[in-house]
Amino acid sequence: MSRADLVWPAQRASEALEALARHSGLVRTGALPAAAVGAQNMARGIERAAGLLGLEIEPIESGYRDLDAALAGSAPALWRVPTGDGAESGVVAVVRSTGRFLRVLDIDSRIRRLPVADLRRWLTRDVEASVRREVSTVLDGAVMDERARPRVREALVRERLGRETITGCWMLRLPPGASFVRQLRQAGLIRSVAGLIGLHALQQVAWMFSWWIVGTSALLGRPDPGWLWAWGLVVACAVLLRVQSTWTSGRLLYLTGGLLKRRMLAGILRLDADLLHRQGSGQQLGRLLESSAIEQMTLVGGFNAALSLIELVTACVVLALGPTPGVHLPLLAGWVGLAALGTWRYSLHRRSWTASRLAVTGHLVERLAGHRTRIAQESPDRWHEGEDAALDDYVRSSTGLDRSALAMSALVRTWIFVGLAGIIPALAQGEQSATMLAVGIGGILLSAQALARFNAGVGSLVGAWIAGGHIRELYRSARDEPPPPAFELPATAGEASLEAKGVRFQYAGQTEPVLRDCSIRLNPGDRVLIEGPSGSGKSTLAKVIGGLLEPQAGLVLLDGLDRPSVGFDSWRRRVHLVPAVHENHILAGPLAFNVLLGRRWPPTPGDLERAVATCRELGLGPLLDRMPAGIMEFVGEAGWQLSLGEKSRVYVARALLSGGDVLVLDESFGSLDPVTLRQCLTAVLVRPQTILMIAHR
């Protein structure tokens, strides 16, 4: 199989993506429209094709040293392969990895086997070419064993290229808003759950068999060495099963938690920003606390509940073989019913306790956030107003929860006494052998263990269900995936026109709209200033134009097309909004990360040079000179503290470095002195973008 048969031409990259998605089980039917291939470059074509297929593309980079691991772990994926003859690169479609070989699609959509070493050589050929020539020149003048020369050459090449980055890989996966069961199935976790249950069932059988061997030898009074060896082998098998089940459950917890966190993050990013502001930081922290525990409670609780059912079935079989099955089986059924009733009472108390705990948490966080304001302006006799009532409510709900948990625990202990009491009649009559009595006692203990595991598992599931109610809004909002654009618009380098016609917007809970029949037109290259008093709707208009808010009436058009036609992602790439300072944020990280947030990370040397130049244009040169690490200095809450004026200029630099056609500045220069303001305006107005500025009158 030649390289030409495995490398898809750049013109067929979208077709390769579609074939890869079908063979990977990510899509079942359907074909890409012809418009998907008409993107400006291969990367945009692949991204657009994935959107039309309802999938997500993640561009990844790999270090030269880690390339083998990246090739083995990034499937399904497309890898861009340089042609080396001046033509545009092609792509290799990797379906899955099998050790030292990859399963790839040839240009006829048939699965072929490709050695990992071959794909690595194709990817690194251009990078290694010049370095190999230099290394060969050095080695030509060196005296060494000729047999060691190839190894030395490879070691030197790897050392020289150790910090090189290999780009051009696109991993294909389901979007976070897709069906969660489908995501679990695609990740192979459904099979892992079935395998985990099977492992625990085998482990249960092994332990039962080991106890049967020990019990038989003890009751017969003839411990045979062969049976002891058999017991040892069975115990060793049970231990190995336990190790494997522990590793499998840990892997399930890790991977499922990652999928859930990814979905929660997507849901948060799609929530209405104004709704989040109205809910407050305390409620958001409560959501965070609930989401951080839900995957562990769900998985641990679900596994324990499933295993308790296995153990209950096993216990019923053992009790049926015991001395009094007619007594123990109805009793066990009654105790399971009592356990279910106790679980219902526990769920009521757990719901009340969770509500009280989140209320106390939210109350405390909100007060901490405004602590300095309260100290300066609030009367001291009101500092602790409402705290005692909230704590009393929390103590009452905690007491009820503890009592219900204690009752469920006592249910297990009482079952042991009741079960042993059921054996007394058979023991008094003396009609049962010691073996039958031992079997009955073993069934009682096994069922007690099953009840204890049932209580623990169902208790965790109840906690997960209640926690899920608090984050259900995030889970559902992740499904609100914006539709792909109808067709691809070319970049216009600042020559875009933007128009709002009859826009109306009203916030939830308000009786009057903030915007009513609002219209504005920006022609290519316009510089427009909107002034007005506070509360007149200037910032709301900026958010509508920038795509953060959807108008309830009217149209917002970019080059004559509305947002669904342009595409929500494309709209935000072309229309850059700089929100007001109090609604923007400096993220914990290097200053370079903050100003290049809309570009890419990690940056190229050219990105860093452009970022430094832009910051100096905006008057941030003295700040860069003061910082020990320059633009790579860590900023944020735990780093270098920026003034309000410095923050506002960082936000503007972030938008300027992101490119785009239209720039919307919402009161971005209100905290600057006249000299700095003039410098920033000069830096902004020399850009080719269409600019809309908003300021107080």
Number of domains: 4
What is the helix tally?
22
Mean pLDDT: 81
Structure class = alpha+beta
Question: How many DSSP E strands?
Answer: 15
C-alpha Rg (nearest Å): 33 Å
Low-pLDDT windows of residues: 34-39
- CATH topology descriptor of the largest domain: ABC transporter transmembrane region fold
Biggest sheet overview:
6 strands, antiparallel
**At the first level of CATH, what is the class of the largest domain?**
Mainly Alpha
Measured as a percent range, the helix fraction is: 55-70%
Strand adjacency order, main sheet: 1-6-2-3-4-5
Q: Span between N and C termini?
A: 71 Å
What fraction strand? 5-15%
CATH architecture grouping of the largest domain: Up-down Bundle
Backbone shape:
globular
CATH superfamily of the largest domain: ABC transporter type 1, transmembrane domain
Write a brief structural summary.
The protein is an alpha+beta fold and 697 residues long. The protein contains 22 helices and 15 strands. The chain has helices spanning 3-6, 13-23, 42-52, 67-73, 116-140, 149-160, 180-186, 189-220, 225-270, 273-320, 325-369, 371-377, 387-429, 434-477, 538-546, 563-566, 568-574, 591-595, 605-617, 621-626, 644-657, 674-685, and strands at residues 56-63, 77-81, 90-98, 101-105, 111-115, 165-173, 498-505, 515-522, 527-532, 553-558, 575-578, 589-590, 634-635, 662-666, 690-696.
